[in-house]
Amino acid sequence: MTNECRFFVPGPTWVRPELLQELTRPMIGHRSAEFKELFRGINANLKTLFSTKQDTFVVTSSGTGVMQAALENCVKRRVLVTTCGAFSERWFNIAQSLGYEADRLDAGWGNAIDIDALADHLLTRRGHYDAVTITHNETSTGVTNDVAALAAVIREESPDTMILVDAVSSLGGMPVLFDEWDLDVCLASVQKGLALPPGITVTAVSSRALEQAKKHPYRGTYFDFLEYKKQADGNSVPSTPSIPHFYALAKQLDHIVREETLPVRYERHRRMLDLSIERTAHFAKRTGDPAHASVTVSAFEPAINPETLRNRMKERGYTLGGGYGEWKDTTFRIGHMGDIPIDALESMLDVLSEVSKG
Length: 358
Ligand code: PLP
Hints:
Aspartate Aminotransferase, domain 2, 2 domains, binds pyridoxal-5'-phosphate, alpha/beta, Aspartate Aminotransferase, domain 1, 14 strands, 12 helices
């Protein structure tokens, strides 16, 4: 299995062959008893993964669709977007495209959102925002935000404001404690920490968010959380889902929750970050605030041209991630997330060290 893992892009990530196999199973009807059984198993494990007793849904859409859904269901007029890189900025673009009044609290690329800055901002605008968005793990820079602390500040300063969290590149790699952190929507597409092919998104939604959605008469049809809730209560979904993904998700959640187990998985991710830093230190500098270094993805500034480095790796059969946005020309990225075995990462880092010379 290890030999097959040569793909270190920060999403989509390497998919284990037995999960790919699940995608080829015969179809079942999505209103059938078999589907309801599949759905029940998925939802039970999702609640463990999100650490929640509230509702969890699976949406046939990439993560961006559910970011839009979160805004459409929870925001009437005003939203505060916290930004520190390309994906956190995506919330801002979506909010503007929906016609909301969107403010931005920007920490700058490579930094984490500052808790005091958020508290100060909210203090002067108490009750002003319908929602605040947080990107748990900024994939473009390899920085993890302290969602627990940020959410606590929001609850303190503005108790009724919805907290919308993008956990696209954190879920499955580090703890996401939906109930304890008192979040309202938390979403993750499955092609990153959950190591499945792209195409669906898992999400936890609070009862407070569902109440909020009731106040919005024009939520659209496809992403209406209330319809998701109604159907989920009967172990179903509003429209025809990507059934092959449901098979693969069911198998993968069983693996994550019962076989590997969450503590072991999180520890493997911590080890992958440490190895990635240690084994590249002689030829590349990890960028982004070291105090908030992500355990799932790293951006590095190498001594040689990052594109040359990636091409050399390609010649050796390895795919690494390119730099993103503002850091496109100066960095390359390693996705050390999902199901990557430690020894596969070590083999890749050995080759990377070799090709970085000269
Ligand atoms: N948010 C983060 C942090 C991401 O890394 C990505 C994709 O890379 C997205 C959102 C967008 O997700 P999707 O491509 O599934 O729409």
